[in-house]
Specification:
The chain is α/β, with parallel strands linked by helices and about 260 residues long. The chain contains eight helices and seven strands.
Length: about 260
């Protein structure tokens, strides 16, 4: 039944995405606000499908920690799930993403119209400078900026690999940083079509105020997110002991992770 439900969900999930992208083209006339409205509709339908078909419920915690206006949102990235689930509490956002995504038909056009931050990762240090330069006006406009500190998905339990980008943004922009912990990878795993039942949690942690030096900031951000993720994993394992094997598998993982959904 797990496989059957997962197949049905995946078919409806991607069908919903394609249909919304096509019939929602007029929404781009409303600029990024129109695109955001469509994106949240996609997210809401996707969350509903997960609950109804797969028995996977999404729970938000710590919403009271989200500051109004401009903030740097540093989220743990374990699954494709949080890429749409995080949209619910971000009224006017920009996501730092790889430039190749803007080349995807329809989808790329939505990214451009909504003024997301697309970077060329092959440019090395220049890419980091590009991120900082593009992020400053977004924050100055009172918008939220999403960044995945590890750059890509990591499975639950995997050793953290925080990169320099998040520290550079924190230091150069003077923005506060909102850490986000998740356990989504236990239920929507990378490289598999299965969607396990349970409770996937997205937890907003207390923001880190500006003013720390880079080393202190990274240490605090990493320890805060990793401790919260470990706690969420432990909580999930209590409800479903089979999930322990996934966390143990992640702890042995140190290979590069692809970016496909």
């Amino acid at each position: 039944m797990l496989a059957i439900r997962s197949i049905v969900f995946n078919l409806l999930f991607y069908l919903n995405l394609i249909v919304l992208m096509v019939i929602g083209l007029p929404m781009m006339l409303g600029g990024r606000k129109g695109v955001f409205a469509l994106a949240r509709l996609w997210g809401s339908i996707s969350v509903w499908l997960l609950d109804r078909i797969c028995g996977l419920r999404l729970e938000y915690r710590g919403v009271e920690n989200i500051p109004p206006g401009a903030v740097l949102i540093a989220a743990k990235h374990q699954s494709f799930l949080e890429t749409f689930a995080l949209l619910k509490y971000a009224p006017d956002f920009a996501i730092i993403l790889k430039r190749q995504l803007t080349f995807i038909p329809f989808f790329g056009l939505y990214l451009i119209v909504s003024k997301q931050i697309a970077i060329d990762r092959s440019r090395g240090r220049q890419a980091l400078q590009q991120i900082v330069a593009a992020t400053k006006p977004v924050l100055a406009a009172g918008r939220q900026v999403f960044i995945y500190p590890e750059g890509t998905r990591r499975p639950p339990g995997a050793p953290p690999k925080f990169k320099h980008g998040v520290a550079a943004l924190y230091a150069e922009t003077g923005a506060s940083c909102l850490p986000v912990a998740v356990n989504t990878g236990l239920f929507w795993r990378r490289r598999t079509f299965l969607r396990r039942p349970g409770v996937a949690v997205i937890e907003y942690l207390p923001p880190i105020a500006p003013g720390l030096d880079r080393a202190a900031f990274v240490e605090r951000l990493e320890s805060t997110i990793e401790a919260a993720c470990a706690s969420l994993n432990s909580e999930a394992i209590k409800h479903d002991p089979q999930l322990k094997a996934l966390v143990e598998e992640g702890a042995r993982c140190d290979a590069p992770i692809d970016h496909s959904a």
